[in-house]
Amino acid sequence: MTLIITPEVVDSKLIIRGIHLELTEALKSTVREKVTRLLRHDATIVRIRIDIEYDRTRDRKSEFIAKGHIEVGGPDLLASVASEDAYKSIDTLMDKLDAAIRRRHSTHREKRHHPHGVGAPE
Question: Which domain covers residue 55, as residue numbers?
Fold first, then answer.
């Protein structure tokens, strides 16, 4: 099943939230662009929620926190990254989510190509 990634598809599957932070249009467009890469890898993604949080109570090296939640069939994929720059947090988060999707896909492929019995050993 191939999914043509249009801006409408991205907007229908993406939720972006800013916590203690006003989301600028540049920040939103960066997230949309990065999420397109994730949607290309797996067409079964139901929804992606990205939370970008500004926490000034933390130290300067981790005041921007980006959290990702991908809803798919089966267990959801979660990741979180903290850094001193919002864009850096988003980039690192997308790399982590991409790795999680790839890991999930290779696990499913491995199970499909090398099935094993479930019964008790004899």
Answer: 7-112
What is the domain count for the chain? 1
Residue 2 located in a structural domain: no
For the domain that residue 89 is a member of, what is the CATH number? 3.30.160.100
**What pTM value is reported for the model?**
0.81
Nearest C-alpha neighbor of 72 from the set 50, 108, 114, 43: 43
DSSP string, the chain: ------HHHHHHHEEEEEESSPPPHHHHHHHHHHHHHHHHH-TT--EEEEEEEE-TTS-GGG-EEEEEEEE-SSSPEEEEEEESSHHHHHHHHHHHHHHHHHHHHHHHHHHHHS----SPP-
- Whether residue 68 is contained in a domain is answered as yes
Specify the length of the chain in residues.
122
The sign of the torsion formed by the CA atoms of 52, 56, 59, 60 equals positive
The one-letter amino acid code at 13 reads K
Encode pLDDT of 47-70 as tens digits.
999 999 998 887 777 789 999 999
